[in-house]
Structures are given as structure tokens and as C-alpha cells.
Amino acid sequence: MHTKDIRATEDKINDKIDAAGDKAKELYADAVKKADDVATKGEKLVERVKEKVSEVAHSVGEKLQAGADSAAQHLENAGHKASHAMHEVAKKVEHSAHSVADKT
Asked: Which of 58, 61, 80 is nearest to 69 (CA)?
């Protein structure tokens, strides 16, 4: 081969190496951009999940409080009914005792 041919071949090889390097840089830049996009979307998703979890926890807390309040009210009502029933029984016992005492 002549020196001219060798230099032409070297130039072609160098051009191909440079083109491959440029392509690798482009691919790397695209990969970095996509990774950043995925990270940003992931952060937004995490924030949305946090908000939803907070909303659900708040809702559950409210429902638990409402349930506890309702249960307390039912217990209070039952206590009043039991107290009233005991008072009525006491009256009947007292009345029965008076009736027995009057008969004797």
C-alpha cells in the first residue's frame, strides 16, 4: 500500500471512531435525561402516595373517633336504661314490702 492509501484508511478509521464516540455521548446524554425523567416521576408518585396515605389515615381516624363516640353514647344510654330499670325494680320491691307489711 502506498502512504496515501494508508493515511486515507487511517482517516476513515478515525472518522468511524469519532462517530462512534459522538454516538456514545448522545446515548449517554439520552440515558441521563431519561433517568432524570424517571426520578422526577418517581418523586411525584411518592408525593401522591404520601398524600393519599395521609388522607386515608385521617379518614380512618375520623371514622374511629365517630365509632368510639357512638359506642360511648350507646353505653351511656344503656347505663341510663339500666339505672331506670333498677329504680323501677327498687320501687316495686318497696311497694311489695309495704303491701306485705300492711297485710301482716
From this structure: 61
Classify residue 41 as exposed, middle or buried by CB count within 10 Å of its CB (0-12, 13-18, 19+): exposed
CA atoms within 13 A on the CB side of 55: 6
At position 31, the amino acid (one-letter code) is A
Cell of 96: 311489695
> From the centroid of its chain, how far is CA 46?
10
DSSP element (H, E) containing 63? helix 3-103
Cα distances from 37 to residues 24, 42, 44, 49, 59, in angstroms, run: 20, 8, 11, 18, 33
84-97: per-residue pLDDT in tens? 999 999 999 988 88
**Distance between CA 24 and CA 70 in Å, rounded?**
68
- Is 103 a residue whose pLDDT tops 90? no
- For residues 27 and 30, what is the distance between their CA atoms, to the nearest angstrom? 5
